[in-house]
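Re: 2-acetamido-2-deoxy-beta-D-glucopyranose structure - here you go.
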Amino acid sequence: MKHLTPVSALALLLAPAAHAGLRFPCSTLTIQRLDPVVQPGSLPSAHLHHIVGGNAFNASMEGDVGERATCTTCQMSEDFSNYWTAVLYFKHPTNGSYHRVPVVPVQPLLGGSQGATGGLTVYYTQFDLSRDNLKQQSVTTFKPGFRMTVGVPTETGKPHVGLRYQCLTGQSRGPELSDFPDKPCSGGIFATHHFPACWDGKNLDSPDHQSHMYNTINRDGFTNAPACPASHPVRVPQVTFETVWDTSKFNSMWPSGTPNPFVWSFEGKAGGTHADYMFGWKGDSLQRAMAKSECFYDGCGSITKQAMSDANRCTVKDFVGEKTDGWVDKLPGM
Ligand SMILES: *[C@@H]1O[C@H](CO)[C@@H](O)[C@H](O)[C@H]1NC(C)=O
Ligand SMILES: *[C@@H]1O[C@H](CO)[C@@H](O)[C@H](O)[C@H]1NC(C)=O
């Protein structure tokens, strides 16, 4: 939201629902060491993930996820996709013990989190937050079996554009940062992952899970992606995750003037932030939503929604069975 002045934010609030784009909450499905994109079949995978979405989630996932899943933690009831990121931990500055940081729902500009528990907020945008792209460039949605990642855990410098942090205090999200905040944030740490908008149109995946996609976005925030290159000509919806890590209960254990004590679950700092996407919308439901100008934010007539109280009942089994909560002397799998 960094590029919105208060006046344009107000204009957005008052705008008629005549734009194409989706934004909706998904509750936490599970927190486990599984990664069906990067380490399919590994039970467990190398590090811990926070996962939302459909109950077809498993150590490996092939074929049409939208046909196999029977429930989803996402508000859009035809969306059986899975969305996941690493998990944030607090590393005690003096004794070195770790404690998992809880996730809390994002409080968006329009509407509340509608009863989500934990989880993250997902966006599928066509242009930016307030306009659609139907006249400029049509958007083609993903195919069954499609998957992609953004970011790499081995990155120790700055994460690339679109992978950012914000320090939440009161009503303010503050500026977008390419590093963890250097002071305690009373409202937690806000993490954003923007995925690329251009697909090669052929491969559902690639060896690095990224080269079938191309990122033409060169600015932070919800900006329209510049035209896709000939190598990756298919314009797909711009997928974004927003997650709020509630760091507040650890702030008193962060001595003033010392480095940020939070680490990602692969023992990584800010640069290694990454996210995974496994497409799983049922049938042509996402394409229908993207092709209609009526579909904007939560007011989307052409696809069905469920109450978050129903979404919250969707679960998967604990495949790994290890302790990830409370004080632990090492990160799960490390
Ligand atoms: C997970 O995948 C395995 C291997 O494909 C399969 O046998 C099992 O039934 C799946 N479990 C669930 C709960 O979907
Ligand atoms: C580290 O400090 C925390 C908070 O006081 C405590 O709960 C935890 O048990 C400590 N770990 C060790 C190894 O002493």
